[in-house]
Amino acid sequence: MKQPAFAFDAHVALQEPPAPVFVRNPRARRYVVRVSADGVVRVTIPIRGSKRRAIEFVERQRTWIAAQLERAERERAQPRNVMPPEMVTALRAQAKRDLPPRLLELAAQFGLTVSRVTIRSQRWRWGSCSRTGRVSLNWRLVTMPDWVRDYVLIHELMHLKRMDHSPKFWALVAEACPNYEEARAWLTKFKTVHPAA
Ligand SMILES: [Zn+2]
Question: pLDDT of 132-170, one tens digit each?
Fold first, then answer.
């Protein structure tokens, strides 16, 4: 019995990998195939290589490419950075318990007065500070190393002295938290795998 045309087409569409992108690289020594996270297949053609050889190379790597494409597709389908809700609840409770006393301890150390501490779930901030001395802290701080968490707390506390990010502000931070640059670097790296910035 003849298969309906659409079924055949669907089969072809599923089996055929996307057309590879060929890139000549005079510094490359050999053919290299890569599959990017968005499912693009890139083939590097070395200095003495040809497109015909590159296509043959892709043919030989077909199984590997198919596996990589599948993996990329699976990863794209998965929502990233999603924590199980019960874990979020537990961490938020821990944050409410641990962060305010630590903030007050540091405030006392620097002779500063905090009028109120709130634990929040800001998506794009680790913390904030108002002119009236209210400090909001992101519960995700409890998932960080202590020295990074302390930097964020000190950063907010120093805003009680200066409400800007001027060199004078950073000098205050540097004095209170000598490894603040390391902590900032850590946060920058963390940002890429974490929803809050
Ligand atoms: Zn700030």
Answer: 999 999 999 999 999 999 999 999 999 999 999 999 999
Number of helices (H), then strands (E), in the chain: 7, 6
CATH code reported for the domain at 85-191: 3.30.2010.10
pTM, entire model: 0.59
Question: How many whole angstroms from 125 Cα to the centroid of ligand 1?
Answer: 10
CA of 159 to the centre of ligand 1 (A): 7
Residue intervals in the chain for CATH 3.30.2010.10: 85-191
Distance in Å, CA 85 to ligand 1 centroid: 29
